[in-house]
Amino acid sequence: MGDIVETKPVLYSYWRSSCSWRVRIALNLKEIPYDIKAVSLIKGGGEQHCNEYREVNPMEQVPSLCIDGHTIVESLNIMHYLEETRPQRPLMPQDCFKRAKVREICEVIASGIQPLQNLIVLIYVGEDKKKEWAQHWITRGFRATEKLLSACAGKYCVGDEITLADCCLVPQVFNARRFHVDLRPFPIILRIDRELENHPAFRAAHPSSQPDCPPEVAK
Ligand SMILES: O=C(O)/C=C\C(=O)CC(=O)CC(=O)O
Question: Which cofactors, if any, are listed as required (predicted)?
Answer without folding.
Answer: glutathione
